[in-house]
Amino acid sequence: MQTLRTPEDRFAELPDFDFQPHYAELDDDEGATLRVAWVEAGPAHADPVLMLHGEPTWSFLYRKMIPIIAAAGYRVICPDLVGFGRSDKPTRLEDHTYARHVEWMRALAFDVLDLHRVTLVGQDWGGLIGLRVAAENPDRFSRIVVANTGLPTGDVSMPEIWWKFREAIQSAPTVDVGRFVESGCRRPMSDEVRAGYDAPFPEDSFSVAARAMPGLVPTSPDDPASDANRRAWAVLAASTTPVLVAFSDGDPITGGMAPIFREHMTGAKGIEHPTIHDAGHFLQEDAGEDLARHIVSFLG
């Protein structure tokens, strides 16, 4: 598997993101290795909070939340998905599969970091991947937070706005990541923050994962990932692991999933689920502090 690696100087002087990166080498599923990055904060031996971003973002998305959750006494771990952030970037669309992304995050969380009593925080693809990892390794997780995400099986049609997003990001001559993120927010974004989202992608050849991920979302019942996601739904729906449903009030892509999680997850029963106000799809960017405080309350 051929990969690209973003030069480290692209990550210098990012606003409010001075966390030192950690790296691990993972099996790339083709006999070689991939370097995967993460940042962390908080007590090293505390219960871990594994926060997974979606596409086309990276761990920079969680910069407002990391200090709040770490200050509450938890070990916060924010990986960069393969193809994003400081992690290596496979150069072919076909290098990216749903199953591979699940396995890469499983391997980092358990083979490298050996995490137990994990609280998952998943948004966008961070939920699609993280919920699979949680369902397939239930003994490692103590809590789950779903935030503007889903676990599609292809049995229900995706909203029209999602199809437009997929077409836009797959057909654009170049992927303007910062602008895509900004378009999924409700609140103004500064030039410096937009540049932070652009940082991992010095040129379009680094953006293959951003183009690939929408095509990996199951959109038909016989999609390669559909059966595994159905099995994950069955496990999670029956599980008593506590689930916090923390969606924003302004996400036309995944907003319809909030009542489904609340109604179908046994672990969501009896929990007060917040709505994050004045926030779009990327609610961590719009209202990260609010989301973090709700998570701390849930953990407590």
UniProtKB/TrEMBL annotation:
It comes from the Bacteria. GO terms for molecular function: epoxide hydrolase activity. SUPFAM superfamilies: alpha/beta-Hydrolases (SSF53474). Keywords: Hydrolase. InterPro entries: AB_hydrolase_1, AB_hydrolase_fold, Epox_hydrolase-like, Haloalkane_dehalogenase. Residues 48-285 form the AB hydrolase-1 domain. Gene3D superfamilies: alpha/beta hydrolase (3.40.50.1820). Coiled coil: none annotated. This is Haloalkane dehalogenase. The lineage of its organism: Bacteria, Bacillati, Actinomycetota, Actinomycetes, Mycobacteriales.
